Amino acid sequence: MIDDEKYMRMCFALAKQGLGNVSPNPLVGCVVLDKEGDIVSKGYHSKYGENHAERDALMRVKYDDTVGGTLYVNLEPCSHYGKTPPCADLIIERGIARVVIGMRDINPLVDSVSKFKEAGIKVDFVLEEEAKFLNRAFIKNMTQKLPYVVIKTACTMDGKVAVNSGDSKWITSPESRAEVRRMRNEFDCIMTSSNTVIADNPSMKHRFKCVLDKDLKTDKDAQIYQQGKIYIASKENTTIKDGQLDLKSLLLDLYSKGICSIFVECGGTLAGALVRDGLADEVYQFIAPKIMNDNSAISCFNGDKIGRISLCRNFDIYKVKQIGPDVLIKYKRKTN
Ligand SMILES: NC(=O)c1ccc[n+]([C@@H]2O[C@H](COP(=O)([O-])OP(=O)(O)OC[C@H]3O[C@@H](n4cnc5c(N)ncnc54)[C@H](OP(=O)(O)O)[C@@H]3O)[C@@H](O)[C@H]2O)c1
Predict the structure, then answer these.
(1) Could you tell me the distance, in angstroms and rounded to a whole number, from the CA of residue 130 to the centre of ligand 1?
(2) Which is it for strands 148-155 and 282-287: parallel, antiparallel or unpaired?
(3) pTM for this prediction
């Protein structure tokens, strides 16, 4: 009895190796078994423009090893000509007998499932919800034409990100800050605000950075501007709504420039506005074991007074990890 879930989980792990390098493409991994049920190849989509996972895996094995075999892939193989020829055709040519898929492609023009069935290949699905979760950013990009937005916040046990003067160095440990530097690579863009640039003068090393600075008040010699490609969102290039930069139209603009995912590192004002406008998909919250005990300090999420708990924004926790003395909690916004 072949353990389909085990091999699909292997595909997920392979797919994740492409994180940060494949956008605007999805994360895809592939495992190939021969007719005896032994693994003969593995592959993944490593970089935009390079081979898809199925091609990567199939190009590493001889025809004899794939005939009658099973191919696992977390996303329905492509059936149309894009940057590379259709993977579905290659799978058929290589004599694969069964294809196990995580999720169907959300582009209705992709239909390799029918193609496989016509070619006499058995098709099964497994771990669909997990496969969709893995490619949640891709699904949002395709369906909403917006980047996937993750807010990072480093706070105390009482939810504060800086003291009233703006000092925030350092709330969390060196281990947590190293983790943040590593996480940045998984995103197409780092976003921050004029206030944070002025208060912290961070460098936030990354290939593409967006600074929200409506009135161009930040110093052009600030460290953030010394490296990477910079996009300053100001009243010169961004729609204004209620006296502030319109965050939704900025996100649409960034998406049109090829930005599919954004890691936001800011204080409570911008983070609160993103949450209020329903534009934050996830929060990565690093909590340090400290209590600031100061009502005048800056909170993780600022906003207007609400009258009822039922008006809270709801999230699901999907990961909790201790990092040095701190805790990292990853939350995903509930959509209903
Ligand atoms: N612990 C942490 O994780 C962490 C991370 C970063 C920063 N910080 C700290 O946070 C403090 C800054 O927090 P903050 O709350 O003052 O500022 P913030 O949230 O970083 O940024 C607020 C600024 O964002 C801009 N913005 C653009 N569009 C907006 C919109 N629609 N709604 C709201 N803001 C919009 C505005 O600047 P413009 O008008 O110029 O566009 C606004 O003043 C600093 O002391 C910093 O040290 C802590």
Answers:
(1) 34
(2) parallel
(3) 0.95
**pLDDT for residue 14:** 98
- Percent pLDDT > 70 in the chain is 99
CA–CA dist 43, 16 (Å, integer): 11
Atom of ligand 1 nearest to the CA of 271: 19
Place of tokens 């961070």: 202
| Residues taking part in catalysis | 54
The tally of CA atoms less than 13 A away on the side-chain side of residue 174 is 0
CB under 6 Å to ligand 1: residues?
A: 153-154, 161-162, 166, 168, 171, 193-196, 199-200, 212-215, 217, 244-245, 247, 265-271, 273, 298
